[in-house]
TrEMBL record:
The keyword DNA damage applies. Coiled coil: none annotated. Interacts with UvrB in an incision complex. GO terms for biological process: nucleotide-excision repair; SOS response. The gene is uvrC. Gene3D superfamilies: 5' to 3' exonuclease, C-terminal subdomain, GIY-YIG endonuclease, UVR domain, UvrC, RNAse H endonuclease domain. One of its GO terms (molecular function) is excinuclease ABC activity. This is UvrABC system protein C. Belongs to the UvrC family. Residues 466-510, 671-691 are annotated as: Disordered. Its main location: cytoplasm. Transmembrane segments: none annotated. Pfam families: GIY-YIG (PF01541), HHH_5 (PF14520), UVR (PF02151), UvrC_RNaseH (PF22920), UvrC_RNaseH_dom (PF08459).
Amino acid sequence: MADPSSYRPKPGQIPDSPGVYKFRDEHGRVIYVGKAKSLRQRLASYFQDLAGLHPRTRTMVTTAASVEWTVVSTEVEALQLEYSWIKEFDPRFNVKYRDDKSYPYLAVTLNEEFPRVQVMRGAKKKGVRYFGPYGHAWAIRETVDLMLRVFPVRTCSAGVFKRSAQIGRPCLLGYIGKCSAPCVERISAQEHRELAEEFCDFMAGRTGAYLRRLERRMQEAAEEMEYERAARLRDDIVALKRAMEKSAVVLADATDADLIAVAEDELEAAVQIFHVRGGRVRGQRGWVTDKVEAVSTAGLVEHALQQLYGEEKGDAVPKEVLVPALPEHVEPIQQWLSGRRGSQVSLRIPQRGDKKDLMATVQRNAQQALALHKTKRASDLTTRSRALEEIAQALGLDSVPLRIECFDISHLQGDDVVASMVVFEDGLARKSEYRRFQIKSFAGQDDVRSMHEVIGRRFKRYLQEKQKSGEWTEEPSAGAAPDAGGPPDAAADLEPDPMAGRPVDEEGRPKRFAYPPQLVVVDGGAPQVAAARRALDELGIDDVAVCGLAKRLEEVWLPEDDDPVVLPRSSEGLYLLQRVRDEAHRFAITYQRTKRAKRLKASPLDAVAGLGDSRRQALLKHFGSLKRLRAATIDEICEVPGVGRKTAETVAAALAAAAPAGPAVNTATGEIIEDDEAPPAALSAERGQDR
């Protein structure tokens, strides 16, 4: 690792102007490219105390051996130069989106004498009209098949076209009416080109006028009693409408926009783009990237804009680009986009209406894409095996941790403190063995003390079950719960089997808490790890490894170590530990929210002896809220049907003794309802559900 001070330029050497800079390693390879409005200020930020740098930035500057820069006149030029250098040098520390496929386009080759409709991938060619991109090639072919009935444009290859012209006989599509057969001169080259241009106009969104023209011609044919021609026109209209349905109408008819959404976690990010042309979603694409540099959502958006439009020209850049967050310097990027389009481009965040609703849909697609990417990565057996081996090597374990248990503490400002335990076997979640705990030994917020209690309780149960167990299985139990994270036989491919040797009950099912993990992971840093290790030592358990994963910096902490273990960013072991930690956090916070919701919906009437659901609801319906019921006299309470004087006295005494009830919660919307404003029906529904 290099010392950044060894190659730090003197402050006076760095110009205070826009520019692009490159960090190189000891071999001269470019490892990072960046741009700045002020090179002096930006580069100075890299040469501060290493402890104050983000871990990824710290790794970059200690890997680098030199830095150089190029001065430009404007931020727009800096943006263009940065993009070209990233494409040229492919720096390892820059965010680079990677396509999971080459997205297909619907292309019309207007540069040929007889234009052809086809599916095309790769670099765009001059003189070809493109529509898309589409998620799948079959989606293009379905659309084209419907439209060829109305626009019988050539779709055959050059070889097929030439052969048909030689033999004087068209191909099958010419016979069934899905090609106008220009190869045998059924129509002229000019007529065929006009047909191809009509096809392009329809695909570009100019559909309304064409459909109205077809409907008018259909009505005229019917009036002239040419029913066969009218029927054909009717079928043409149906086919075009079906083709239109494949691209849902989402915005105003003339809207051309690209919508970009980002879903991210600490390690990776997914970007989804919807291409809207003529008010319809004409295409969709997505990328996934490792976050190898410290980058915000705005930074991810800026990188996506560079990659998406870096090589596009003309009408490929729409009038409007909608994003979830604006880049730090939005003006130069907007100028750059406008320059590539040749006219003004609006870059903004949608605030209301249909565009905001569609952006929510794009965001859901991005989240699903990230989840799918992680699921594919986790379900691969080879990847899981490598992850477990990397964890064992990094933590100095004697064998791979086939069973990992992770613990997390959750609370809301010290209230409703709970803990979760999630289990991963062979790198897959075993949800049937998840457990949750309530903190019992003390009140208030103390994550370290809570962790000590939970670890102690879990392993006390393990020792108790171990002592009580008189029967041990030598093979996996037939009654064992199937793996909740993957196919039932996925774990069988790794040896030894973590189910082997597990204590079972009378029916052959594994006993709860009876099987120890090889590794305990806690959500937190050195204090939480020390508390977990202390709890195990107090129970005499020394064959279970302990580590902690700190969320902010993704560092792995070991007991009694002053410095954390830093796994490489590309490590599958780090990815697995993060996934285990995040699952424990999700499980804990779900339980904590459930407990809090029950507490908020509790009512002083619940503790009144002899007062059932019906009379509770009748009281609330009669008075409208607990506040009004608390202010009522005993005689007024007796007016409620079914409530006698003795019950009324008990209710009044209970309400007087209790503190004012917390706010009611509308279970339909999750909103808090003040007592004196709560509608009787809402409160009745709440109390009915609470029971």
